Amino acid sequence: MTTTFTLQGSGGVYGINAYGPDYIEVNGVRHDRPLLLHPQSGPSPLASQSSASLCADDLAPVLAMQPEVVLIGTGPRQIFLRPSVLAPLTQARVGVECMGLAAACRTFNLLAAEGRKTVAVLLFE
In angstroms, how far is CA 19 from the centroid of its own chain? Predict the structure, then answer.
């Protein structure tokens, strides 16, 4: 299933226009690899390819972005990550939500539009 969003004014420069099971479109550019997404600085590649291979070191760049909330899209279904993977974020008192990729995309756009300091970690399974 593919979903396309109608462009709305947002609190950030970068937003998700569309997504499907194997891609995410950010500001009209299609990405078919996992990525980090910040509403001000845009997408950046993520070393890990899946929630199973994600490790704490993969989330180090997220802390540098100083988010209040990190959304982790884990593919077609919600997968809860190991506490050891999330430890750097929880120790820094950053809120973390694991959810399916579709929910993470929708929630990212909503939080970015509200001007919240959010980062999305978007994975495909």
Answer: 12
pTM, two decimal places: 0.89
Q: 104, 120 in Cβ contact below 8 A?
A: yes
Cβ-contact 76, 101 below 8 angstroms: yes
For the domain spanning 3-123, the CATH number is: 3.40.1230.10
Contact at 8 Å (CB) between 50 and 79?
no
Domain boundaries defined on the chain: 3-123
Please state, in angstroms and rounded to a whole number, the distance separating the CA atoms of residues 23 and 60. 23
Digit-coded pLDDT (tens) for 30-65: 999 999 999 999 999 998 889 999 999 999 899 999
For 105, the enclosing helix (H) or strand (E) is helix 101-113
Work out whether strand 69-74 and strand 118-123 pair parallel, antiparallel, or are unpaired. parallel
**CA–CA–CA angle 2, 52, 1 (5° rounding):** 10
Cβ–Cβ under 8 Å, residues 42 and 26: yes
